[in-house]
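Pasting as-is:
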Amino acid sequence: MYKQHIINYQMDIDMKLSLISANPNSGIDDREVKKSIAAFPPLSLLYLASVLIKESFEVSVLDQPGQGFSFNQTINWIKKEDPDILGFSTLTSSGRNSAIISEKAKENNPNLIVIFGNHHATFNANRILRKYQSVDIIVRGEGEKTIVKLAHCLQNNGDLKYIRGISFRKNEEIISTLDQELIDDLDLLPFPDRDLIKVDYHCIIAGANIAPKKFTSLITSRGCVYDCRFCSCKKLANKKWRFRTAKNTLDELQLIANEGYKQVIFVDDSFTMNPKRVEEICSGIRNEKMDIEWICEGRVDNCSYDMLRVMAKAGCKVMYFGIENANQRILDYYKKRITPKQSEEAVKKARKAKIDVIIGSFILGAPNETLEEMINTINFSNKIPIDIPQFNILGAHPGNDIWSEFVSKGYIDVEKHWESGVAVCEVYPEAKVSKQEIMNLMQLEFFKRFYSPTFLLDQAAKTMRSSYRINTILNNIARINQIRKTVRQVA
């Protein structure tokens, strides 16, 4: 795929790469060995693996949380694979654990080359290289072009300074090359090989498995053109949105269906950005009679009834809206570019279009946000006809605008928080509500809502009209019974 960018590379030396998606930072010892139900396959690593395999490299992939590996099991897996290059896909939630694994792996094999990539590595490249001598190279931004060129360069003992999109140490100096160019035509990417990881993935929302059938994830576009201050996606993709054609997307969906997958989540940041493309994808699903149920996210200001109805007819069962807040003042601070009225109308249209489950995401804890404003958002979540509200506490982490703002104002101790991020209400000097108070408020709302007779009756009525809901409930009952049976056997 990238042969036009590679000149005179010789494949004389076999090279193996092993790629890891690590556990969250808290789960680093053997007591964390018990497997929880994994969310989605690590598509970023599967894409990297696919482009590397296409270039004749040997590749293995480990999803540590998905496969339920403890720290020691992960180290043993690395020993068994014996790679020349060990790569980690790092998020704020897993960066520290990735570093700890890399340190132990380097102890066992000092010649191992360790590479970090993804969000956490992109926005903390110099900090990681300064703190962790076990990490040799950072791949910044989108990784497919870079990893192929980098692997060839390392294979042939080339000069790293000619590889765009990386940071590395040379004679104790940290060198960062020019940013890598984004991939304009996403249709050129090979499909991710899901067989590289043998895991039974599911989608868990509010403790319930809403995708109990054979499930996977799929991405049809990359990037985002919006300016939400709590998100780092726009910086990772230079505020550009690129999309796969409907045909290319349908080709992968057909492949997934042929492999027996019954449920899919589209993990695009902006799946509904182009309604015409969405409708083409939906038409293709129906024309090919694909037996697939799916989940996606959409903006409330870009969801017409006609599009939502087409989506529902094509198998869209769950719609996730980023509503975020009920107070225009807070929405404006976030630069969300929506209104509460638009959120209310979008949810009503999705309900009318017969989307089975509607989820709304909300963020509490903006600077100067009052308790009254938070209660207003909670009341708003109860007023509009969503099924599941997800409440989050506003966080600042490297890559989002709020982090940059708070660092510039001296509110954040960078050395203390760069690996973990921090709740805004914990560091903002004039915060009106503490983190504990927000958590108590969220917990109270959870119990009030989900144990409300009115809510339970409403959900029961909706369930009776939805085969998807009925199937999901029956599968969750079976899952709970199996868990109880397993617990009794262990006891």
